[in-house]
Amino acid sequence: MSAKRPKGGNRDEALRAHLSKVLDWGDAHVTFDAAVKGLSPALRGAVPQGFDHSPWQLVEHLRRAQHDILDFCRNPEYVELSFPADYWPRAAPPSEAVWKKSIAALRRDRDALKKLAANADVDLFARIPHGTGQTYLRELLLVVDHNAYHLGQLVAVRQALGDWKGA
Predict the structure, then answer these.
(1) pLDDT at position 150
(2) CB neighbours of 91 closer than 8 A, spacing ≥ 6?
(3) Which of 166, 129, 135, 158 is nearest to 53 (CA)?
(4) Which of these, 122, 113, 17, lies nearest to 63 by C-alpha position?
(5) Which of 6, 33, 56, 67 could form a disulfide with 44 if both were Cys (CB 3.0 to 4.6 A apart)?
(6) Residues 15-70: pLDDT tens digits?
(7) Cβ 120 vs Cβ 20: under 8 Å
(8) Closest by alpha carbon to 159, among 45, 60, 43?
């Protein structure tokens, strides 16, 4: 069975619109904003039994990884980070201000990735010039997949801590 192409539809525009939306949609999973909403400050650094990371570590890991991918996509002088040291924080957030700064940075970088996806001057199928074969499309999909995975973990950690009210 073959799918019909929409009449008058522009596949490139449709792909870009879908990528922009999928970077923070909630159709198939919880959104980032819902996953962090109402999280008790006292539990941000708590690691529940049977889990490896606290809510803070997951949020900060999401921010660091997403920023790294964005930097890779747009910075010809990109320097690869060291895994796991550069991707995972060791301790709880030192303050409310640091927590808020991390969340704001994640949202800002997500918006920049959405703009990258929507930018018709960027060939999504082109290899990133300073990469080793990665395309812009691959990197955008990597962010979507990575964020969905860790947002699921964040919800599970909040459930284990008794701090999840649902989205």
Answers:
(1) 96
(2) 45
(3) 158
(4) 113
(5) 56
(6) 999 999 999 877 778 999 999 999 999 999 999 999 999 999 999 999 999 999 99
(7) no
(8) 43
